[in-house]
């Protein structure tokens, strides 16, 4: 970006869009992980399928949740918050068209497609937005709806999906897509007969959503495996649900602790959800202690270069590749990141290079040559996990780092500034 455009951008943002970090402080103490963004953003739209009140506990305070609450409001669903508890009353729902710009502010608004199609056999809405990670088609979602009997019309940015009736079918996904698995699962809850999703995604968020839907009376078996079976029902009742901890937030704090910590305990973690990360960190030389619901990280400045390949769960999560890259700048030798999910998810590398990193990038790959000390400067969060990687880099860097476009970070990290400050970071 030309410097003048960048300066203009800086002027246009309010102070809320900036995170400032004076790096080099050692992190110590405990940090508690919030509930899972990618679960809650599927759970909230799925509430349109309930005929009774749904109560959710431990809902994270993040921008994506704020936007989804507004979209539920457009459907005449009442959402009442009491701290981190949400009471959602869908009993007077009206299936209006979701032609509101908020739909385009996040990816997960696409879950209204499966949920409203299932409940009302009709949905009309804008295409979803979300982080710019290169092309993010939704063809597998739409093919799945068609297999259940829906007809789809697309006019520019507007998608309209109708079905006289939904009939269960055997659906094979060409790729184990998280979004397509969830969307088809939602619509299939109200399809007549049995739907089977083969080559389904196995992410923990899918298990969390299916366990909530089953409490509501759905009949879903096999979530968390590559074959999910859904026997259709005609009605879903209300329920009370606790959302699982956020494995990507947990991973982000564990990496930050590995980068700048002396002795940090990350609490409210399901260690099995982040095994691909913790085993890679151990290979780098990070000392970890794992309990049933925590990971304790001990600082170590003598780190080895490693290679990672991002893959669907239980492989190394694409969402943690960007935060880990910041730590890799500290490791001795050449690290390699092969990104198989989003070939263009490398915008953080340019920002890290402006802080003194030595990273080469090409489509699908980045090569990190370390160790390189980082220095503070003005940098730009271009997407959520890029933002997380820049926060870690800012903690590691000497001097002052100013992260612009920090709103990307608030989409997915509850109280990140406060949590890091409590660990001893100088951040505002
Ligand atoms: N894909 C298709 N066609 C489809 C759907 C997906 O080609 O119809 C491709 C995508 O282009 C991508 C790959 O399949 O290359 C994976 O996409 P997937 O559908 O699994 O991802 P998603 O549902 O769009 C969710 C998370 C992402 C996370 C990915 C992968 C939500 C709201 N988003 O996205 O989270 O990176 O799964 O695990 O759950 C984030 O939290 O920062 C984030 C981007």
Give the helices and strands, then pairings:
Layout: H1 3-12, E1 19-22, E2 27-32, H2 37-46, E3 54-57, H3 63-74, E4 78-82, E5 85-89, H4 111-120, E6 122-126, H5 139-147, E7 151-155, E8 158-162, E9 170-172, H6 178-188, E10 194-198, H7 204-215, E11 219-221, E12 227-231, E13 239-242, H8 247-260, E14 261-267, H9 275-284, E15 287-290, E16 294-298, E17 307-309, H10 318-328, E18 333-338, H11 347-354, E19 359-362, E20 365-370, E21 378-380, H12 384-396, E22 400-404, H13 407-410, H14 416-422, E23 426-427
Parallel strand pairs: 2-14, 3-13, 9-10, 17-18, 21-22
Antiparallel strand pairs: 1-22, 1-23, 3-5, 4-5, 6-8, 7-8, 10-12, 11-12, 14-16, 15-16, 18-20, 19-20
Bound molecules: uridine-diphosphate-2(N-acetylglucosaminyl) butyric acid.
Uridine-diphosphate-2(N-acetylglucosaminyl) butyric acid binds at residues 38, 41, 107-108, 131, 135-141, 175, 177-180, 201, 318-319, 341-342, 384-385, 412.
Walk me through what this model shows:
The chain is α+β, with helices and mostly antiparallel strands and 428 residues long. The protein has 2 domains: 5-34 and 245-427, UDP-n-acetylglucosamine1-carboxyvinyl-transferase, Chain; 37-242, Enolpyruvate transferase domain (UDP-n-acetylglucosamine1-carboxyvinyl-transferase, Chain, Alpha-beta prism). It is built from 14 helices and 23 strands. The structure holds uridine-diphosphate-2(N-acetylglucosaminyl) butyric acid. Uridine-diphosphate-2(N-acetylglucosaminyl) butyric acid binds at residues 38, 41, 107-108, 131, 135-141, 175, 177-180, 201, 318-319, 341-342, 384-385, 412.
């Amino acid at each position: 970006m030309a410097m003048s455009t960048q300066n203009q951008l800086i002027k246009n943002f309010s102070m809320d869009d900036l995170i400032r970090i004076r790096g080099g402080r050692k992190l110590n103490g405990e940090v508690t992980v919030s509930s899972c963004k990618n679960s809650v953003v599927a759970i909230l739209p799925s509430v349109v399928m309930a005929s009774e009140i749904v109560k959710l506990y431990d809902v994270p305070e993040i921008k994506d949740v704020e936007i989804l609450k507004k979209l539920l409001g457009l459907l005449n669903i009442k959402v009442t918050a009491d701290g981190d508890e949400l009471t959602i009353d869908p009993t007077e729902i009206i299936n209006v068209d979701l032609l509101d710009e908020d739909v385009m502010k996040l990816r997960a608004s696409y879950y209204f497609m499966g949920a409203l199609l299932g409940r009302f056999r009709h949905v009309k809405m804008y295409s979803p937005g979300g982080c710019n990670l290169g092309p993010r088609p939704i063809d597998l979602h739409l093919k799945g709806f068609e297999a259940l009997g829906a007809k789809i019309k697309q006019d520019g940015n507007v998608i309209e999906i109708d079905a006289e009736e939904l009939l269960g079918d055997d659906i094979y996904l060409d790729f184990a897509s998280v979004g397509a698995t969830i969307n088809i699962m939602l619509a299939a809850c109200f399809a007549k007969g049995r739907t089977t999703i083969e080559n389904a995604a196995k992410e923990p968020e899918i298990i969390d959503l299916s366990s909530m839907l089953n409490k509501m009376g759905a009949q879903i078996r096999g979530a968390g495996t590559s074959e999910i079976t859904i026997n259709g029902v005609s009605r879903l009742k209300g329920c009370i649900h606790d959302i699982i901890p956020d494995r990507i937030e947990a991973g982000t704090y564990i990496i930050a602790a590995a980068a700048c910590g002396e002795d940090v305990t990350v609490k409210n973690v399901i260690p099995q959800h982040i095994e691909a990360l913790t085993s890679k960190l151990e290979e780098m030389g990070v000392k970890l202690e794992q309990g049933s619901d925590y990971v304790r990280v001990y600082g170590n400045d003598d780190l080895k270069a490693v290679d990672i390949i991002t893959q669907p769960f239980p492989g190394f999560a694409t969402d943690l590749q960007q935060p880990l890259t910041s730590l890799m700048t500290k490791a001795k030798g050449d690290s390699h990141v092969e990104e198989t999910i989003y070939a263009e998810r490398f915008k953080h590398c340019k920002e890290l290079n402006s802080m003194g990193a030595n990273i080469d990038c090409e489509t699908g790959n980045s090569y990190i040559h370390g160790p390189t000390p980082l220095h503070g400067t003005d940098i730009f969060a271009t997407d959520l996990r890029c933002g997380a990687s820049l926060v870690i880099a800012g903690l590691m860097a000497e001097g002052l780092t100013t992260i612009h476009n920090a709103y990307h970070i608030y989409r997915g990290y509850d109280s990140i500034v406060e949590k890091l400050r409590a660990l001893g970071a100088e951040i505002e």
